[in-house]
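lol so apparently i was supposed to do this last week
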Amino acid sequence: MFPSLRLRRLRRHPQLRELVRETSLSPKDLILPLFVRHGRHQQIPIASMPGQYQLSVDRLAEEIREIDRQGIPAVILFGIPEKKDALGSDACSHSGIVQQAIQTIKEVNSSLLVITDVCFCEFTDHGHCGVVNEVAGQFDVENDATLELLQAQAISHAQAGAEMIAPSGMMDGMVESIRDGLDEAGFHHIPIMSYSAKYSSGFYGPFRDAAESAPQFGDRSTYQMDPANGNEALREVELDVGEGADILMVKPALSYLDIIRRVKETYPEIPLAAYNVSGEYAMVKAAAQNGWIDEKRVVLEILTSIRRAGADMILTYHAKDVARWLN
Ligand code: PBG
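anyway here it is w/ PBG bound
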């Protein structure tokens, strides 16, 4: 007890602070999301996400080399196709925008891990994450019809060279269905990183500008989770574990640190990812641009907190900045 015990002793020397630090943050923990669009010579800034761009496939090579040089181990791809339709056909086509991007990346660089987001909202004209139909008198995303399409999309990504599949649509049974599809097509070695506990969140706003994927009617609350429910996240995670998910994910991150912690405590042996989403990024950027916060300090603090809560890896738009600051 005080005065013999003085915890400030361990805080006096900077090197000592490093020695007793329990949480680490490295560029090696980070996955950078990339928006790939149709067209040529395009690098279109995303207004609500300063520093992020939609890149056309011919602009990818340079970007990929830089990411690799910075020591970031992985990217996750989102596509903006030339044409959208009711079923999001571009998503399953071997000449689709994401498939083209994967091939290009694998040609320039074979060491970077290529992850693909598997969902339909960027590819459908209605902007929902699957097949929209009247279900019990209401327009809704039809779960089981969507599963078949998710399977086709995942297989198509694997055929193009994707090294990990990340389904984000929050359909019941999506992991099992994608696992079965991949296995049957000979891709039993391709892991699934499931967006297991993905909440229906206002923090996705800037992403929907970036990916041009805002729903044209209604919202995603019939498939994404209710922010008021914590226990249900554990049920979602339990299902995904049973269906064969290799990596779990909680999304968003900052408002859901309690969920990250609970999932990590329940499944300490399963790798856990957290998605530091577009709205979280936009808030930090806006405040920093106004001179209201110290960007570097706040970003490192946020990412460290997400790691401290229990995330093994973080999907974040700050990845390149962090690599620059920490290298
Ligand atoms: C696709 C998807 C979304 C995000 C990742 N995958 C958008 C959504 O669910 O509306 C959001 C990522 C972010 O906000 O950074 N379903």
